[in-house]
């Protein structure tokens, strides 16, 4: 549940702390006093889109922080996602205290926080999805949407129905993919065959040459050597003669001079042993010179002066260059094109076999998907019947004694009309009174009827899903009198298993709350820390009187308010 909401510079709210109770908390106040901004603040910390226009005039930014207490069951869903985001919260007496926050700059950018760490706003939505359900006027509009109606039936159906839907969805996706590939093969078969004919020409051209990766660079280096073979031989010979001395060398080569130096130092070291390292170094130098001379000799022996070989190398370089211009720009690109082209041609050559395989596969998937769809439809019809019966009972308790709800589940006739969530279209129908025709929620249901229907559905769904906190904005729209009393009574009953937060203008609803929070504006039109107060006793009576008649000192109003509070107290005692 949410313990506390702290708001700064949001709309008309300068600064406010809103405390919530474990059971039923109601927020009241004059129109424009800032109650809607409280719900807007809740929306921000549950991941809703931020808008710089929400920032109070003259402020740089708005800040909203919410403190949640999470029980062990909710923690199982929340803590893993919190850890993924790099945040955490610590357990306190078997519960976890989680702080969520949002900052909105006047320029429009926002930042989100969870457990003291900066996180994407989407993480707030994921964390609070299992913690809070917010209902407002927009949810009444959603209730008219057939897709939302199907979602409610599925939710009421529980894990069993969800498992059937997931199994169907997997089969449906596989069938659609098989059908897509099959259709693509058949429709574009001629185009692919024409393309394959062109690819074969390129494949034959490359295959005739059989180039290797990096061969163009190797041929370039080889051509350079062959083109300068004569100069290379001359330079290598000169270097070899300098090292070895050659037959005609007047003064000998490096090897001979090193030998002379070694002998001289060898004689000297007989007189001084410190010359031993120098002798060893001269020996190593002589070995290195000998090795270098041998390598130069081997290089010269392998070097060929062959104009015809050079011509063959240049011709292959030109052929590879032509391939690079057509299929490159690099030789690796040519090789990649060759591989891809061969795969494409192989696919075209095997099209008949693939079409036959896909036809069989798609038929099998279609049949399995159809069976899954039938099972899903049966489960939905069963859930729809039970949901309609349970909601009808709730509507009777909400002062609609002759009303009833029915839920029609109609399955599509052929798989081509199925969707990713099944074959079914779901329609919720409301019969407002005896003798009336059932009518779709989107055609003729009033705002008051939708408000009560939405509340009835939530009460029923509360038995099959665990939502710690419900928030209702204007759930009492379009109602009053005895109906409002029944709505207040039902909200109080819902609060026995969940935290319920309600923004209302009706005293009949407010009287049933466990905690009554009043939001007012100061003389400057702002909501400050002193403008949010929990009222009780005579202060609460005075607020109910204001809501009843607008006359805070009305004696008749005070008697009526006391009567409402007594009724609510009796109802709690009876339960």
Residue share in β-strands: 15-25%
Total beta strands: 16
Q: What class, by secondary structure content? A: alpha+beta
Largest sheet: 7 strands, antiparallel
Helix content: 55-70%
Distance between the termini: 22 Å
Question: Would you identify the CATH architecture of the largest domain?
Answer: 3-Layer(aba) Sandwich
User: Whole-number radius of gyration?
Assistant: 43 Å
Low-confidence stretches: none
User: For the residues shown, what is the average pLDDT?
Assistant: 86
Write the layout of secondary structure elements.
Elements: E1 2-10, E2 13-19, E3 24-28, H1 35-45, E4 61-70, H2 72-84, E5 91-92, E6 95-105, E7 110-114, E8 117-119, H3 121-128, E9 132-135, H4 137-143, H5 146-187, H6 189-209, H7 215-227, H8 229-244, H9 254-268, H10 276-302, H11 307-327, H12 331-349, H13 351-397, E10 404-411, E11 424-431, E12 439-440, H14 447-461, E13 469-473, H15 481-494, E14 499-503, H16 507-510, E15 515-519, E16 532-535, H17 537-549, H18 555-574
Parallel strand pairs: 3-14, 3-15, 9-13, 13-14
Antiparallel strand pairs: 1-2, 1-4, 4-6, 5-6, 6-7, 7-8, 10-11, 11-12, 15-16
Which terms summarize this structure?
575 residues, alpha+beta, Rossmann fold, 16 strands, elongated
Written description of the protein model:
- The chain is an alpha+beta fold and about 575 residues long.
- The protein folds into two domains: about 1-145 and about 465-575, P-loop containing nucleotide triphosphate hydrolases (Rossmann fold); about 155-365, no CATH class.
- It is built from 18 helices and 16 strands.
- It has helices spanning about 35-45, 70-85, 120-130, 135-145, 145-185, 190-210, 215-225, 230-245, 255-270, 275-300, 305-325, 330-350, 350-395, 445-460, 480-495, 505-510, 535-550, 555-575; strands at about 1-10, 15-20, 25-30, 60-70, 90, 95-105, 110-115, 115-120, 130-135, 405-410, 425-430, 440, 470-475, 500-505, 515-520, 530-535.
- Strands 1, 2, 4, 5, 6, 7 and 8 form a seven-stranded antiparallel β-sheet that branches.
- Strand 5 (about 90) and strand 6 form a beta hairpin.
- The longest helix is centred in the middle third of the chain and has 47 residues, at about 350-395.
- The chain is elongated, with a radius of gyration of 43 Å.
